[in-house]
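Q: What does the assembly look like in three dimensions?
Context provided by user:
Components: two
Sequences:
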Amino acid sequence: DQQVKQNSPSLSVQEGRISILNCDYTNSMFDYFLWYKKYPAEGPTFLISISSIKDKNEDGRFTVFLNKSAKHLSLHIVPSQPGDSAVYFCAASERPSGAGSYQLTFGKGTKLSVIP
Amino acid sequence: NAGVMQNPRHLVRRRGQEARLRCSPMKGHSHVYWYRQLPEEGLKFMVYLQKENIIDESGMPKERFSAEFPKEGPSILRIQQVVRGDSAAYFCASSPQGQGPHEQYFGPGTRLTVT
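A: Here is the predicted structure of the complete assembly.
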C-alpha cells in the first residue's frame, strides 16, 4: 500500500520554463514533507521541505505547495535549468512517538529532463 | 567536513553468502537510518539506530537481516544467506541527535547484486 505516490514517472521541460512535479499522499498522520533530488549512482540530496502547518515554502528557484485537504503537494522549479535534470523524490514523515524515529516514506520518483 | 561514507559502493554476492554493508556517518552525527531501494521503486525505511542502540527496526525483514551501530566504528547492515530478491541499492543517512526529518544526510549507497 503506497502512502506516497508520484504518478508521473517522467517529465520533460524546456530550459527556462517551469517544472511542476506532483505528489499525493494517503496518510493523514504525515506532518512534514520533503523533496529530494537524486543523480545516478549518488544518494538523495535534500532540496526543500514544508511543515503541515504551512501551505507554501520558497527557496530560490524552488517552491513547494501543500494542499492538506487534497493530500497533495507539488514542487515548482522556475526557471528550469539543464542541471536540474535528475530524479525527484517526494517524502513524508510523521511526528515521532516515543524514541523519535523520523523515518521517511518515499514516493517512487519522477525523472525530470530539462531540454536545453 | 566529509559527508556520509558507505562502502563498498558495489557488492556482488552469490546466493547463500553473507553481505556486510558499512556506513560511516558525518562527523558529529550519532544517529543512522538505513533505507533500501529496489529497482523502479522509492526508498523504503529499514532501521534507525543510535550508538549501541536499535531505536526502530519496524522496516527490517524479520529474518536474515540485522544492523548494529557500535560505540566505535561504522554502522553495519548485515544480510545473511542472501537471495536474488535482496539485490537493491542500500542507502544510509546520518542525522544529528534529536533533529527533525529534514536533517538526514544520505550516503552514496551500496549496490548489492546477488547472482
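Follow-up: The first strand of chain B starts at residue 5 and ends at 7.
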